[in-house]
Fold each of these.
Amino acid sequence: MASTNQIHDLPSVKPLDIEQQTQEEEVQEMKVFDYAKRAQWLRAAVLGANDGLLSTASLMMGVGAVKKDVKTMILTGIAGLVAGACSMAIGELVSVYSQYDIEMAQMKREDMGAEELDAGKEKLPNPWQAAGASALAFAVGALVPLLGAAFVKDYAVRVGVVIAVVSLALLAFGGLGALLGKAPVVKSSLRVLIGGWLAMGLTYGLTKLVGSAGL
């Protein structure tokens, strides 16, 4: 009897709540997915801003090699900003729409239910949001050399200011992109900086050469 009473006195072990554990795992997976998705979008924004920065600065340096007045240089930068932002937006729209159509066709082939199909749609990137984000990122990057050159009348000082602000921005964008991509920050930043200098130098030199030839 004593042993029987001892057995009854033992604390009852609650059964493992499998459903609750499964829900917690799903929530954790959603958090990981959401973080990865945000990191991917942020990295794409950084790359877009870097494109806007470098292409607009190179255009301004190239045209500035032939036409040294501030008005021409600024108009060139504005034209580069508008054209580049539109190009980035259209390219991103077409690319993401293609991905969207492929993913939707795959889900339909898998004979998903209406709820599963709606849930799958929510996870897919929005083409219009992607296009807008890409254009905005490009425009933000392009504004850096424009603002650097806008208030400097002397040509030599203006070129020096553009090179300085663009170099700092290249280092910043390169470092941020490296952090998001988990790459070496210093090495990646210097790579982006040297690449930017080469792009601006080649554009300036070749435009100067063509302009000197009288074409």
Amino acid sequence: MSVAAPSSLLKVEEIQGRGRGMVASQPLKAGQIVLRDSPILLYSALPLIPQSLSSSSSTLASSFCDHCFRTLPSSLQGDSSSSAVLCPSCRHYRFCSSNCLSKALNSSHSSWVCQALSHFQANSPLIGHPLELQVQAQFLIASYNLANISPSDFQILLSLHGSPDDATISAAQFLHPLISSLCSIAPIGLQNVFSLELTSALLAKDKYNAFGLMQPVSVDDGQRSVRAYGIYPYASFFNHDCLPNACRFDYVDSNPPDGSNNTDIIVRMIHDVPQGREICLSYFPVNENYASRQKRLMEDYGFTCNCDRCNVESNWSDNDDTIEEDNAEDGEEVMDEEDQYENMAASDTDNNNDFPHAYFFLRYMCDRPNCGGTLAPLPPQVDSTSNVMECNVCGKLKSDDEQDEAPMED
């Protein structure tokens, strides 16, 4: 299936050994926005069954709008519904405005979705099962709803990369009877769509293509959880590299000035690249070590990474892992990965053959504690590259002269 180019800056090509990928159609500048992509599907990453929430997170499910996933004003959070914009049918799902409610009722929270979610919450067939299954159930409801409200987008979803593996088949065998039990209340056009094979295929598309929309960074421990997942038809073509040349930004809690949606994701170049170069993202924070990266990529995406960085680190990672394990057993504090890279960069100025990519971490990795974000220049003005870098996790701005500035305001 041929794929239309997302813009004049990028094209989708078959790349040997890597499948389809995004390639620069022309020379690209640091900070340049190469893609704005809107989701064809959004669904919550929070527990479907309220009883699954721990006491410490009992109000989490009502902290975000159930359509655009913005953080709700404090007056609309919690259990109080006095000023909330609630779904008129289930009186459970809440929205940041009447406008969001209106959009949701015609798309993401259609009558069938409302009934399906309410059915699961009332009958609680997923109580006692892992959160992952609850999130997958919400994805399947959203996907089958997409088949009804936008068949063309549903076909785009099915065209994306990903085939069922043992894990997705097992999940489908458990979830499909629950989803198909909703057939009797489904729209007529949807009643003949449900099948175990399609459910398995959909779960595979979700596993390999979903992007997380993140919650704000916790001021207490620096952790950042997922509030929702989205399927982005063009962004899904970016392949992974452990030293990416582009990174993704989202501004879920902001009001985009250019008229785009708050759930759009924006991909910006980290540094200049020539025409014909593949444009890659990192699928997780770049400061993870070799063993952790390889484990995550195999478990979550089904491949082993052979990028330049991995080829270098594979020569010494076994020793490092052994040292870390020994230190952990002895109760000694293990040096943070960021600190290791900074020390390598400082000590290898004369001979950096052991770690030739140390400059990346000094230049493009956020130095805020517990962040792990990647820095990219702000979009260039005309032909001039900005000297201000923005972190794609915490929003911190940092100029070339190392003078830190405040995070961007909405």
Amino acid sequence: MAPKRNAKGEPKGAAENGESKNGVAAQNGGNDLPERNILITAAEGQTGRLVLELLLTDETYASKFTSLTALVFSEDAKSTLDDFMQTEDIAGLKEILVFDPEDEETLVEAMKNIDTCLLIPPARKDKAKITRTLLEASKKAKTVRNLVFLSSVGCDYAERDKQPRLREFIDLEALAMQPKGLTETELTGHSPCVVRAGFYAENLLLYTKQAQGEGKLPIPIGKDHKFSPIPLGDVAQLCAHILTSYGQHGLGEDVRGQVIIATGSAMYAGEELAEAASQALGTKMEFASISEAEAKKILASDQGEEVDEAEKEYLLEYYSLVREGKTNYTANIAFEHIFGTKGQEIVDFFKVYSAEFKPKKRRITKSGGSKAKKHAQD
């Protein structure tokens, strides 16, 4: 489900007319910033789409780059992204490239027009192979000075035999940082930044059926296990800031060379999440501690039909980290340093998605029984 707010917490569509101002100031001489040509990979995904939307419609970022290109992984994904841009009335995207693993030459040529890349590993089983291909293409292009790699919180605590989907982010981070020390890649990777994004709060939308029907949040963690969900909009805002930051050697000095860990504003146990939801929705919501087997059943049902199998594995692995006590921390100093806030509070997240989580009222029939209203799934 696409996020309902932009990274500022505003309703989607709040930007003026949804029109891009990208490159206008630079092209007209009203901006002294160097030229910046950005590529966002996995742009059909929720993270990529939201970063695209933010860059093209938010005045904070839209005047700070010259061009914006999206890379997707199929023709269907290109059509979906095109439809999204038209539906949301968003203009200014230079091009949508379709990744072809058999055509490295075209990929390298496309990369030669790019100096800044947000590399988002796709949520699919071959994400490591694709990420390596993209990094190799950027090395051969020798132009992608600013390389921002989106990784995952918890990858450093994950064990290779127990949480392989999480742990592989460590390997990919190493590949992303490698060009910094290679002279033969010239500009590529000279100005890197790794963002380890926390568990997306939007993943809780997988349990809206239980929330609406039973007033429960079924999560495969114990009563006392804690983690710190971060709203997707906060991650998008952080990425947009990094991509449009400027320093002597590429990215801004406050982010260049950094490994930025970004979790939500606070840690929550399951009951605390339910309490926050109750406060936001104005109705009682309870936490239900379920087994991993039950969590797998939910993901295998129609509730998880839009989630890639690799992403399902990632989610289950992250919950296992929570149960192991390896997520008992928050990391929002960088976010607060940049934006002056720790990010969207979880109560406000539930308010934004209140229609999805709030239990449906039951109609009382003449016989005194009750009948649940049918809910149209998004």
Amino acid sequence: MRRGVLIFLIINITIIAFLVHSVWTLLSLLVVDGSADAISRAELPAPGSNLIDGRPQLIPKIIHQTYINTSIPERWQGPQKTCIDLHTPQDGWEYKLWTDAMSRDFIAAEYPWFLKTFDGYEFPIQRADAIRYFVLAHFGGIYIDLDDGCNRSLEPLLSYPAWVHRTIPTGISNDAMGCVPQHPFFMHVMDSLPRYDRKWILPYITVMATTGPLFLSVMWRHWSSDGLNVGDAQVRVLFPDEYFNHPWSFFTHHLGNSWHGDDARFIFWMAKHWMFLTFAGFLAAGVVFAALWYAYGRFVLGMSWKGQVTRRRLPFWRKANNIDYELVQRHEV
């Protein structure tokens, strides 16, 4: 009986350990906030400060944005204009709007090994996600989503070899980021895209995990945990206060998420009610554990125990060795 219980516990612990190992990177994102690599407000010059001109500028003065074509929806024309107006050719800035056709032509010409994956993406937003990593790694510069406007000049952010934007409650986003050409992290991101190309049950999860912020967060976490986030390969992190919501923040945020569907709204509902779902999850796990224990006891331990009882009740059998039983004379019983 005790041996059976031990086997049952070992099996369950093994299963739990496997499941935890499978999602360990995602779990670690809940506690690793990137504060060690944060771009602190103390090191950022205020808007209009003379200190801006004295900082080294590593990232090229290029702003990248993406859209289906050149006809930008009216709700995003305002944010787009703020970034263009604050970063003019007279100040050395270049603006690149990558349409779907331009993006495919670029991949076909410069990275033909990725074209099959690029064309095979089920959702257009996956191609919009992927192209931003490639153009940043190729040209360098700053990528900005069209639903992000510029609140001030981005020149202070040119002083870091690479930076990304921290999101709440976990991970990083790909809506605003910058790097020098051929930065090792973004080269690694490019190289990893085909390996993460798979279909999940929900479209939202498919997009997030193959090319979107979840994918980028996993790449960032591995980059740090593997000890690569050092020196010129370091990726600095822009936290929410520096990102938006303050007069000295770099960006403004506007209505976006044009690709979100009902599955995304369901996941947002889950995030909003995470405490209830956590309790329900533990309750369901307890029920499953109890059911497994009952089935194990009923059909495994029960059969073993019945076998032992049956042998004890057979008076005409005796143990001949450690394994076998032999028939004995009735008078010996």
